[in-house]
């Protein structure tokens, strides 16, 4: 895909509410052809309500959280850290004890070849 130069003013993108198993996620989403950009905030006490198989690039903007893999591995990410995973490469979910703000990028480029 080719994307013309554009700026994103996240203040103009409304938040949508996504309840977790516990806590709440607030998404601001910009959907482009084959590419989704999100600012996601997890409340304190957030636990995702599902295991995700989708690929993502997740960058921690503020706070900290855990990315738990279904095989039992747990990765702690703090401000300034990033993780990358392709579609169907792991079952993962997010946990945030204290709340966190993330930039999440996903799209067709993360599909397995």
TrEMBL record:
InterPro entries: DHCW_cupin, RmlC_Cupin_sf. This is DHCW motif cupin fold protein.
């Amino acid at each position: 895909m080719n994307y013309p130069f554009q700026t994103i003013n996240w203040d103009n993108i409304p938040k949508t509410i996504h309840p977790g198993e516990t806590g709440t996620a607030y998404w601001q989403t910009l959907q482009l052809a084959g590419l989704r950009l999100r600012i996601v905030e997890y409340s304190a006490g957030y636990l995702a309500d599902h295991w995700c198989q989708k690929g993502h690039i997740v960058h921690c903007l503020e706070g900290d959280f855990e990315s738990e893999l279904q095989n039992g591995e747990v990765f702690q990410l703090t401000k300034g850290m990033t993780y990358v995973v392709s579609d169907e490469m792991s079952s993962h979910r997010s946990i945030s004890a204290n709340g966190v703000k993330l930039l999440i990028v996903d799209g067709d480029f993360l599909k397995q070849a």
